[in-house]
Design brief:
- This protein has about 140 residues and is of the alpha+beta class.
- The protein has six helices and four strands.
- The chain is elongated.
């Protein structure tokens, strides 16, 4: 769980360091802009930006009942962030599995991708799709 927060914390620390340097250099406006920008990046790359993850088993069970896609992701993945942003509010209609928190989910991703943990991997109707176009995923949402 800790490694999910490494990148967001690096963004926060970098933002604070740059803001302090800007402030000490007599540029308070630049300090505020830098800090806000790095805090936004930290938020987007944090696990809080994604819908609450469920286990792979629970996601499969729910998907069988409601037909919604299962999205396997991991924190810090820029392609996962891109998918999440492009899905917008529709992202909550998919079942999200954090492969760093769920070993069974990681194993399922490796099985679908020839041993690689390539994310996002989206499973629709039992078929895995690696890094699919967000428009296609949006069309699969009920």
């Amino acid at each position: 769980m800790r490694r999910a927060w490494v990148l967001p914390m690096l963004f926060v620390l970098s933002g604070v360091a740059i803001a302090v340097a800007q402030g000490l250099g007599g540029n308070p406006g630049g300090a505020v802009v830098a800090l806000v920008a790095f805090l936004v990046l930290a938020g987007v790359y944090s696990p809080l930006f994604f819908p609450r993850p469920v286990s792979a088993e629970e996601a499969r069970r729910r998907s069988a009942v409601d037909g919604r896609p299962v999205v396997f992701w991991r924190p810090g993945c820029k392609y996962c962030v891109r998918l999440r942003v492009r899905l917008g509010r529709g992202a909550r209609r998919a079942h999200w599995v954090d492969i760093w928190r769920d070993p069974a989910g990681a194993a399922e991703v490796r099985a679908a991708n020839g041993g690689d943990e390539t994310v996002p991997t989206v499973v629709v109707a039992g078929r895995p799709h690696t890094n699919p176009d967000p428009r296609w995923v949006r069309a699969q949402l009920p």
